[in-house]
Specification:
Elements: E1 4-10, H1 14-25, E2 29-36, H2 43-56, E3 63-65, H3 80-83, E4 101-102, H4 103-113, E5 119-122, H5 127-135, H6 137-141, E6 145-149, H7 166-170, H8 172-179, E7 185-188, H9 190-193, E8 197-198, H10 204-209, H11 212-222, E9 235-236, H12 238-247, E10 252-261, E11 272-275, E12 285-291, H13 293-312
Parallel strand pairs: 1-2, 1-5, 2-3, 3-4, 5-6, 6-7, 7-12
Antiparallel strand pairs: 8-9, 10-11, 10-12
Length: about 325
Amino acid sequence: MSARPIVIDTDPGIDDALAIMLAAACPEVDLRGIVAVAGNVGLEHTSANAAALADLLRLDVPIGRGASGPLCRADVDFAPDVHGENGLAGYRLPASTRTLQPGVPLLARLIEESPDPVTVVPIGPLTNIAMLVNEFPKAARKVERFVIMGGGTLDVPGNVTPVAEFNIWFDPDAAARVFAFGVPITMVGLNATHQALVGRKHLPGLFASGGPVAEIVGRLLDGYYDVDGDPGAAMPQHDSLAIAAVVDPAVLTTVPAFVDVETAGRLTRGMTVVDLSDASGEPNCDVAMQVDVQRFRHLLDTRLSALDASLRQV
């Protein structure tokens, strides 16, 4: 079976960096490009981080610089309290000298020029994807599936408001446009990612290797803290779970549902309204509900340790 072509749309971001590493490590996917968007931190940081990660991982793929803010709303904040001022918890990779391409046109070109359908994996706010839908609808229609890290079901609280997950909350108008577009979607939301707990103890192969990936992943994991303030605790791995779902669909159990996004509510803006009863209309999304946590941890450990070994080779 040939590798599945993918493009990652991202706002690196601690967990985004881990997701990009996982994609680079997995022969099941053919990473065609990375497009940055503002979200966890500003675009100047997310685009620089995407390029620097591509250099570290020796990825011969184009890097795009996409939207610097939401489609409409102006009252949003970045998340330096979670990801640090530079997005990588203060860890600094060598600056890249790559030329960054305009992000949304690059995304459209990578989709249109591929002889095989491309899966797009947005693991940041959906601004670039909504712009693709608006400006390049023909290309957007060719996408095989959007595998989105964002949103969640109502039984799990949001992580930026009581009902909203950050990626959707940051640009709810974009998210609503994407969910309404009609291309197949898998939503990997907080109800799933909160099951995907990973800490140092779950990656023994990686941390035994002692290479550059182990060093960076260790520093990034140590940038997370549990509710008691203990460094290195097992924490949800949001974005890498979306990549894992493309690499090995058996990691997730999904159910079809109709999903819409609240764009105007004073208290509920950014909420993904997931109707599992079909009362709101035909399903437009496959919603991740259960995670095979051991399978996910094993995938991370084995693939990242193999990547680490390959990067140590001259």
